[in-house]
Amino acid sequence: xxxxxxxxxxxxxxxxxxxxxxxxxxxxxxxxxxxxxxxxxxxxxxxxxxxxxxxxxxxxxxxxxxxxxxxxxxxxxxxxxxxxxxxxxxxxxxxxxxxxxxxxxxxxxxxxxxxxxxxxxxxxxxxxxxxxxxxxxxxxxxxxxxx
Amino acid sequence: xxxxxxxxxxxxxxxxxxxxxxxxxxxxxxxxxxxxxxxxxxxxxxxxxxxxxxxxxxxxxxxxxxxxxxxxxxxxx
Lengths: 147, 77
Known about the structure:
The structure holds two protein chains of two kinds. Chain A is of the alpha+beta class. Chain A has one domain: Molybdopterin biosynthesis MoaE subunit (Aldehyde Oxidoreductase, domain 3), CATH 3.90.1170.40. In chain A, 33% of the residues lie in helices and 33% in strands. Chain A has four helices and eight strands; from the N terminus they run H-E-E-E-H-E-E-E-H-E-E-H. Chain A has helices at 7-13, 47-65, 95-112, 135-138, and strands at residues 21-28, 32-33, 36-45, 69-74, 77-80, 84-92, 115-121, 126-128. In chain A, the strands form two sheets. In chain A, strands 2, 3, 5, 7 and 8 form a five-stranded antiparallel beta sheet that branches. Chain A has a three-stranded antiparallel beta sheet with strand order 1-6-4, with helices on both faces. By secondary structure, chain B is of the alpha+beta class. Chain B has a single domain, classed as Beta-grasp domain (Ubiquitin-like (UB roll), Roll), CATH 3.10.20.30. Chain B contains two helices and five strands. Chain B has helices at residues 26-36, 41-45; strands at 2-5, 16-18, 48-51, 54-56, 67-71. Chain B has a five-stranded mixed beta sheet, with no helix packed on it. In chain B, a hairpin with a 2-residue loop joins strand 3 and strand 4 (54-56). The longest helix of chain B has 11 residues, at 26-36. Chain B is globular and about 35 Å long. Chain B starts with a strand and ends in a 6-residue tail after the last strand. The relative contact order of chain B is 0.28. The interface between A and B is medium-sized, with 33 and 21 residues.
């Protein structure tokens, strides 16, 4: 989405009568990265593929952890310092499943979804960065190692 | 065949361009792209490829006039 993410509104959608735990992860833009002053980030995506892939990731996690709710949204375009770039909400009867699923979903989005981050620095330079480099280890751009 | 590239690949190619050569599969497409700009070799080696229906692998046979998306390693989040 190309506008700020409404965390409070999304959190409201995370409540479910079967869920005793709701976990909200917000990935936010920080002002320094690798010792450099960041001005803002710009995200590019192949939106149809990214939406399809995120939908599949959410469905797989919902099935695997028996989640009551699974939601994820990712920004595209310019995202300012302190703003949310990506949000994941999971809800389940108990907290363990909600935490585990949240971690799994954000890891897969970062490694697999066709979304790219360009860091714009305070000195006026920019860099496409922090790409998934699993291919160097797995030998296959479609195989990933999660944290 | 129409090629769409994203992110860091745009340092090496136009975001969208046409290939007039006969290209049957991913390996042949990589060779065509390297012929255009061999400085993209390292990044291309890490790329995935997709068509309208989703990601494809090396066994996929391109159709005529297909739109192919060259997908660099993800860096979302």
